[in-house]
Amino acid sequence: MTQATPHRPRLAVAGLTPLTSLDYPDHLSCVVFLQGCPLRCGYCHNPQMLAPRQAEPSEWAEVEAFLERRRGLLEAVVFSGGEPTLHADLAQAIERVHALGFKVGLHTAGIYPRRLQTLLPRLDWVGLDVKGPGADFDRIVGRPGMAAAHERSLALLLESGIRFECRTTVHWHDFDLASLQRLALGLAERGVAHYAIQMARPGQCLAPRYAEPGPGPWHADALASLVETLRPAFQRLELRR
Ligand code: SF4
């Protein structure tokens, strides 16, 4: 009898960071960036990763070959993007990474909650991007209907018991300090224990106006002061510049 050949995942790989201690808490990891994202955040510093494309079979094979060589040296593999949950073969790739002995983390904006629900039992840690509060979410990502989807993903994560972090990238075009404070406290009230505030990187941005210098309220001291005000609301709160 002929045995079916196992299907290798096909994933459009946009890049790979071979070693980082920043992308999966308390673990040495690598990051696999997947091509394609339906959102259009003005501050996006990876505009070259947004357009989806067909994957070549060799792309994932090369990632697996890299992971084979890193067994015993790395502890975790993080899938990032782009929006990694866009990819139908992600679940299969996660299983193969587990079979190689690594933990698996996921960076996502939570815009495909049904796919996230399928992935959750396979994941060890999730970093969930919270783009903005309520109705501002869709404005910040440039696409309607995303806030409701993200809300379902946050609820799934809170119910799941899986370790996760919420993170918000802040740019002065999208936030003032008061709205950032409201967003953070709202997450804490929901039960989010780990939160990170990430400053948008100047320079290469999807929308050119996001490269303009910001006004006074984003002075470093004011933001640091807000973070200290928020600190008691979370088990872990980080400011990433
Ligand atoms: S910053 Fe926004 S547009 Fe850019 S990859 Fe992330 S979610 Fe997509």
TrEMBL record:
Lineage of producing organism: Bacteria, Pseudomonadati, Pseudomonadota, Gammaproteobacteria, Oceanospirillales
Pfam families listed in its UniProt record: Radical_SAM
Molecular-function GO terms, alphabetical: 4 iron, 4 sulfur cluster binding; catalytic activity; metal ion binding
Annotated ranges, domain Radical SAM core: 22-240
Annotated SUPFAM superfamilies: Radical SAM enzymes
Keywords for this protein: 4Fe-4S, Iron, Iron-sulfur, Metal-binding, S-adenosyl-L-methionine
Cofactor: [4Fe-4S] cluster
Biological source species: Halomonas elongata (strain ATCC 33173 / DSM 2581 / NBRC 15536 / NCIMB 2198 / 1H9)
Protein name: Anaerobic ribonucleoside-triphosphate reductase activating protein
PROSITE patterns the record matches: RADICAL_SAM (PS51918)
Cross-referenced InterPro entries: Aldolase_TIM, NrdG2, Organic_radical-activating, rSAM, rSAM_sf
